[in-house]
Design brief:
Elements: E1 7-18, E2 21-32, E3 36-40, H1 47-54, E4 62-67, E5 70-71, H2 76-79, E6 83-86, H3 98-108, H4 116-122, H5 138-149, E7 156-160, H6 168-183, E8 187-192, H7 195-201, E9 204-209, E10 212-217, H8 219-226, E11 230-236, H9 240-247, E12 253-255, E13 259-264, H10 267-279, E14 284-290, H11 294-302
Parallel strand pairs: 3-8, 3-9, 6-7, 7-8
Antiparallel strand pairs: 1-2, 1-4, 4-5, 9-10, 11-13, 11-14, 12-13
Helix pairs in contact: 5-6, 8-11
Bound molecules: adenosine-5'-triphosphate (ATP) and magnesium ion.
Residues 47-48, 88, 160, 312 line the site of magnesium ion.
Length: 317
């Protein structure tokens, strides 16, 4: 158990109902100060709804949520100046430059002595400081969005799918920015569909499905407790290996062309398989042994593939 004073966020038996839909169903978790907490879940799982309640935009149906020790339903004006938010599907003003955008938001939020140059540096937009928003690529826009979320120098930063739709290089550039935030001691609440992102950045991962929290822990803990096996992939010349593996009691999965994957307990089993394939005179063209990753855990626990999110339509608060 962690000390409540160390909690940036404490969510207790939170529910949110939209008419007959229970979008968030008794969710409880805590986020430690200074950690990167990653919220994962299939489309419609209730991630954005939960974030919107934590950042005081929406009211919970029941349960309690505290941010930096303050109740979100009672202390909105105490909380808002101390948090920063990059909403899902963020957008800004086409005809403002990067610098003007940050100046605009810092005035809007009445920030005292905003360090605009420092922010531009932090998100690596120095070369683009004079560029109009409308001319920025998706990755640059997301980095500007993160800078906007930081204009008030918040202690807790909420980023709702900051890398969705970005190409792999742009995504990695956002990851660099997030690592920089962590080094500065910010608490980061990161919603994402990318398991690789959560595995790389998060201290704690929480998986939500159909409004319920179904797993929580460090990426390593989740992998070790939910996927305690090795994946052995064999490149084979013909179908004899399939028969040999089946005879040994394994359930190989065929992926064309000529690839077989089996789940094994440990390295000893890998050795046994290789020895018996050799004895049977089965030619092997290649092999790969891999520990399971967070994506496999996610698929197992949610029964769904992680995927891109269309912007959810919002009609009520
Ligand atoms: N304002 C609203 N009115 C009615 N239903 C809503 C509203 N906002 C969200 N919902 C519904 O609540 C459920 C949870 O939505 P939410 O946006 O929180 O999911 P999410 O996990 O963020 O999904 P995504 O990965 O697609 O962003 C969905 O079924 C959604 O359609
Ligand atoms: Mg969402």
């Amino acid at each position: 158990m962690t000390n409540p004073a160390e909690h940036a966020i404490a969510v207790d038996r939170l529910t949110k109902r939209y008419g007959s839909l229970l979008a968030v169903d008794g969710v409880s978790f805590t986020v430690r100060k200074g950690e990167v907490f990653s919220f994962l879940g299939p489309n419609g799982a209730g991630k954005t709804t939960t974030v919107e309640i934590i950042v005081t935009i929406r009211k919970p149906t029941s349960g309690s949520v505290r941010v930096l020790g303050m109740d979100v339903t009672k202390k909105k004006y105490g909380i808002v100046p101390r948090i920063g938010v990059l909403p899902q599907s963020f957008n800004s003003y086409d005809r403002l430059t990067v610098r003007e955008t940050l100046q605009y938001y810092s005035r809007l939020f009445s920030c005292r002595n905003p360090d605009i140059d420092g922010l531009i540096d932090l998100v690596n937009l120095k070369d683009k400081a004079g560029e109009y928003y409308k001319n920025l690529s998706g990755g640059l826009r997301q980095r500007l969005g993160i800078a906007i979320a930081l204009v008030n120098n918040p202690e807790v930063v909420f980023l709702d799918e900051p890398t969705t739709g970005l190409d792999p290089r742009a995504r990695r550039e956002v990851w660099d920015v997030l690592q920089g935030l962590k080094q500065k001691g910010k608490t980061v609440f990161l919603t994402t569909h990318y398991m690789e992102e959560a595995e790389l950045l998060a201290d704690t991962v929480a998986i939500i499905s159909k409004g319920k929290l179904i797993a929580m822990g460090s990426p390593r803990e989740l992998i070790e407790s939910n996927a305690n096996y090795l994946a052995l992939t064999l490149q084979v010349a013909d179908d004899t290996a399939f028969g040999a593996l089946s005879k040994m009691g394994f359930a190989p999965v065929r992926t064309p062309p000529n690839t077989l994957t089996v789940r094994v307990k440990d390295a000893n089993e890998v050795q046994k398989i290789l020895a018996s394939l050799k004895d049977a005179g089965t030619p092997l063209l290649g092999l790969d042994v891999r520990k399971p990753n967070l994506e496999e855990v996610f698929l197992k626990l949610t029964g769904e593939a992680p995927r891109e999110s269309p912007a959810a339509e919002r009609t009520t608060t």
